[in-house]
Amino acid sequence: MRLQQFSPPLREDLVLALQDIGVRTEVDLILNEDPTAIFTRLPSALGISLLEFRRAVEKVTELASAVPTYGDKQQELENARHDEILRDDMLVGLPEVDALLGGFSPPRLVEISGDKGSGKTTLAMQVALRHLVTVSDSSVLWIDSSGEFAPERVSNMLDQMRGEYSASALERLQVSLAFDIEAVHEVLETLRESMASRNASSYSEFPTTRCIVLDSITPLLAPMLSATSSQGHAIMTTFVRQLRAFADSFSLAIIVINQSTKMLPRNPDAVFETARKPALGPSFTFMTDATLWLSRRPENADDGGSTMHVAEVTRSRISRSKTWAPFKIMNGLLTSA
Amino acid sequence: MSDRPLSTLSSLAPPVLSALAGAGYETVQDLLSNSTPEQLSKDLNIPLPASQAVFSAAAGPSQRSLPMTQSAAAMMGTTAKQYSTACPPLDRLLGGGLKRGFILEINGPPGSGKEQMAATAVRTFVECDQQVLFVDMQNMVLPATIKRILMNSPTADPDGMDLVRYLAFHTTAEFVAFVRSLPAYLEANPSTALLVLNSLAFPFQPHTIKRFAMLDKLKQVLARACASMGLTVIITSQLTTKMLEGNGQPGSAPPGSKSVMIPSFRDSDFPPGRTYRVIIVPLTRTTGVIRLLSSPTHVPSRGQPAREEPYQRIRGMIS
To answer: Per the database record, which ranges form the Rad51-like C-terminal domain (chain B) (predicted)?
Structure first.
């Protein structure tokens, strides 16, 4: 942060003199050199004594340091928030699967990962649609990064769901196309501006966005990850942190769908034997609140056109991990096994 | 005013970004509320145009509605117009016709007339005044054939041929070059409504290495084009022969072995939510059925009979 931006503001002439000798931010002032060394470089025409300078540096240190919080106050806030948002409007609809993470209520950033055909898009779509048909004034933003969103499948699923507000559900499902990370940033920026202006005014004619689904974050970030440069990893971390801050500040549930890559000879974290793991590297799973790993089970596959799947929690900071639950997908809809 | 970090504005040059970080500007809000382009350029010691570029990038999207966004209901509405493939049994399998933004793959044995079907389908699009890009990979359909088909219709427009662009190639390398330059072509010609890929299996002879990578790239390009500009794609593929119960020694077929002809591509080679795959099954010299292998809403599984429509050949394919 620039020295000019501190409030209460510091002495104007001091700030300008510091800028002239190359000290612009609080990091330059406090951490780069000993403050006494900086003092010797200041022009004597400034008329400031060492004591006053030291006091100014102390004030900057105080203003720049993080605000302390107490553990018990944090716990109280968490409990209050948890009670307030324990509604049942962001669920899959299957008690066993919902118990794995305690539902998808905001604010939450969940990663769903798995092989092709394991049911990731179907699961995310079911959460979104169930929410839309039970709550009348909310909307869901679906960010499609590969162009594979199929409205026919969605309306097929919707026909099989019963809910009060299913007539307007399709209109409240907004689909954005974003083929690179820049485009996703733009979509999020526009959403942020519209939600900030909505918070300012109490009346709004558009439904509030309560859930964002990013279908396949992998093609957006995977090309940038490389073994020789860490820039891709930095871009990935900044992006997911922004998503987290977004979810917290606007109380959203964000579901990120991730694909899978090879892991030979076998994945030690998975409950069932598999040689696949979530893509985007080992650190991605720690940036989200929880990672659900979906896999398709081959047993009794042709039981009337339905397929068996298993959802396991490989890592979670909001619930127990290494738990799993089976489910079936019949006609594009998840049902209990 | 937003908290967006300046490092996410990737359209700015790295030296400018590091100068901004060094001067302590972290978020877009810091920048916009505390400085002007002239002040910034003096402050960071960067030229004025670069400073103005920073401000215009930071000003960000100014529209109220999200970019490239529509509701799912609207998406279903815009794809309502159906183009007939000029072959009634195929139209029936597709549920009326082919909609914009969908991919139709026609498989069939040699001589079943699939390339003719693709060429005839071009006529519907030309009649609706849409541009077509016809790519032929095995010299099955020459420009003269397309012209003849277009001129045959009663409402023939002599300028109709101008709407059809023709491209022919045969090798895998040319295919890779084509797939890489396709997005740029579509951006330069946004009114292209139909892309025909004739004999797609030809550049992929069985020994082709990196087959999966090339097909994956094609699938990605097609999915993006179909989603963003509603491009319709018709693909014809030859069948490949697979030996069963044989030991695959090239040149010798052990007694008792069977060979079947199967489609060259799998369901996963095309975007699942927007592809119709059909196969032409000739039963006699002039009749047969067209079978639906998969569609966006329904994948027939084993045990369930697939939808079929009978056809008759009368110098073409008419039911």
So the answer is: 84-242
